[in-house]
Amino acid sequence: MDKKMKRTRIADALHGGLVGQEINIKGWVRTKRGNKAVNFIALNDGSTIHNMQIVADLASFDAAQMSQITTGACIGVIGTLVESQGAGQSVEVQASAIEIYGTADPATYPLQKKGHTLEFLREIAHLRPRTNTFGVIYRIRHHMAIAIHTFFHNKGYYYFHAPLITASDCEGAGQMFQVTTLNPDSLPRTEEGQVDYRKDFFGRHTSLTVSGQLEGEMAAMALGGIYTFGPTFRAENSNTPRHLAEFWMIEPEVAFLEIEDNMDLAEEFIKYCVQWALDNCMDDISFLSEHFDKELIDRLKFVLEKPFVRLAYTEGIRILEEAVKNGVKFEFPIYWGADLASEHERYLVEVHFKTPVIMTDYPKEIKSFYMKLNDDGKTVRGMDVLFPKIGEIIGGSEREADYDKLVARANEMGVPEKDIWWYLDSRRYGTAPHSGFGLGFERLLLFVTGMSNIRDVIPFPRTPNNAEF
Amino acid sequence: MDKKMKRTRIADALHGGLVGQEINIKGWVRTKRGNKAVNFIALNDGSTIHNMQIVADLASFDAAQMSQITTGACIGVIGTLVESQGAGQSVEVQASAIEIYGTADPATYPLQKKGHTLEFLREIAHLRPRTNTFGVIYRIRHHMAIAIHTFFHNKGYYYFHAPLITASDCEGAGQMFQVTTLNPDSLPRTEEGQVDYRKDFFGRHTSLTVSGQLEGEMAAMALGGIYTFGPTFRAENSNTPRHLAEFWMIEPEVAFLEIEDNMDLAEEFIKYCVQWALDNCMDDISFLSEHFDKELIDRLKFVLEKPFVRLAYTEGIRILEEAVKNGVKFEFPIYWGADLASEHERYLVEVHFKTPVIMTDYPKEIKSFYMKLNDDGKTVRGMDVLFPKIGEIIGGSEREADYDKLVARANEMGVPEKDIWWYLDSRRYGTAPHSGFGLGFERLLLFVTGMSNIRDVIPFPRTPNNAEF
Prior knowledge:
The first copy, chain A, is an alpha+beta fold.
């Protein structure tokens, strides 16, 4: 086989412009079927959900070689791209030469033709990219990342890397993982008997970040608009289909945006991502719609159709109380001051308004210290974007720009000033109105793929008792 | 001041198309000078290195307000964009209204007009984005990230997220940070008295990854081509201008690429990034050239000019031995089997070839277990891209695709098979020739910015005894 012949990606070959030409296709065997005269091999190379049909005339190929071509094997094929006579594909490759790169013993290869449960595939996360489902999901994941970078780049916002290892634990977003190089069998101790973190790698106690927001704000107060896109961590012992210990987050932070501008940005942003998916991933989305979630495409179009409803928390509570009065049953009680549960959010979105909702002006007690206090002294300019099926997809706020108010709120919430001296500096010197929000990347992917378990939209999920691979 | 008037970014206003129009500019004061009749304010909003000159006729503004406009203050200005009479700028804004968002007390604001050392600025990493130098660096950092995504996206390679928290420590790339939720004051113990990591969050001992390569290969063996772009960690106690404990790495991994293809990819990739910088960041690069590194632009063009020299390690050693014979002095000894030091790499690039060098076919003893063994049984298909000033900028290899050879090499290098069962599966089932490499993002930035300390090209550097902010 001619090693120097350029490889053609199956996605490109399927477009049909190369019909009549000799091409070189490489990929993994999905299925092989046929009769005594001819074999049909469905080959996939990851460039598309669609396989290329390889037609091998058995008169031209060694039977021993052909018998090695089983599901999961990797082969290279040279042949002529022709219009297909069969149903199910428009073009196929009439093979003139086949090279086997790697076999896959049918007796042990875990991914045979038959369907597998998602649970089983999680146990072989190193092989699941070879399935149709996960090829689809990882391609969509890629496209959503590119959409995000493109959106912000076009706005003139800069991609900014917040640190992962942090000595700060004031964000209040959740439990943290400790990062250390101390030997647990010979921990250094202070005179008082405490672990002496001055001897640790960073000379202090350090953890994995739960958010890059505070550092991102420092950059926004100089560069104008920035966004982070990086991993964040939560050490909560939450074994649910919605929680990961390690996940990716996008956090734009923009100077001179007030809460209304922030809502505009969030709505434009998420619609841009969904539109990108429909424009660029339709083959993959159709596969998921067919196999997992018949309503997926309708749900994606649903969020594009109308402006999101903008709703103050207080009004939202009134609607939910009204619903309860009219006989709607919720698991969790609803009252002014309560943190909304997913059931409440979904009621507002799916039943009451039938459109995504941006809820604002939450009671200050249930939100973080850095959110801008409203004139009523009771509510803050937080905003959550609520979506069908998944509830909260974005959380953000206008930030408190006033130094004195910020210090007062930090004190109220028990955040020590000495831990946020640098954050306070941004309000001490040249403060400006600014806003931002966070989007959990995997939450977005749950929405765009229609998958129901977050472990299926990240390549190697980290959850309690699970860090394999 | 009209709150609803749309803000114009200074980068856009400076293009001049808006001359004669009333615009709204917001940003931070770099300097203010003037006389009794008029003040000139240099305003920067992060959209460009260039400031907008604001002209304030003192007859129209309150003296008390004007006195608050000092270096570091944040203001909004409405005024008419006019062609400038003064030298140094083509347009300026004749202010009709000024709003002060935040003052910056000259008695305490750390960034006064005078120059600051880079060492001092590292201590106020939360404020250094407000300097010209770091505005420039973070904009270039953004552009290089966008260049990287664009390059791979255009090739049809997928952005793939390898896990950060890992139970695997077989890559051999360096010391690792432990990740734990165990309470050091009440560590669970096994019957044998060891720390019982089964009680830790993930049910086992976990660390921060040193590379996403092995997981990336799993994806390449299904999706064809992927790249990672994420943080990686090294716990080495290296307090040098070239080392970080937390840094970002780009690791493409591509099926069906052999070593020559891999060299082509690396060369095309890095030239693409450098060309992008010259095309999109010239104002910022010119600033760095003027203030830090007069040879910067020449060095950037240098790598674009010629094909990189491709040189086998054995031949490289011969050249270096010849140089020693001719009187060249190196600090470290040179002999076949030695790991090259930066001085050797730079000699080859800067003195001998006067072009970047891709060195290949290293002795297997000094490279990782996963590199493809050559037929000589002594060398492996590793490749390092060597650059002027910084030495190695990329390290990669063709990967060992043969199951038996890979197992043998793992055993030789002391990598336990039980720890890489999943990695070996990729060679057990449908293996394929494939290659990849790693580029340290901050190494690229050192090259593109000409900065000499790696702590100055990442927003919040993490190094021994340093995790502030």
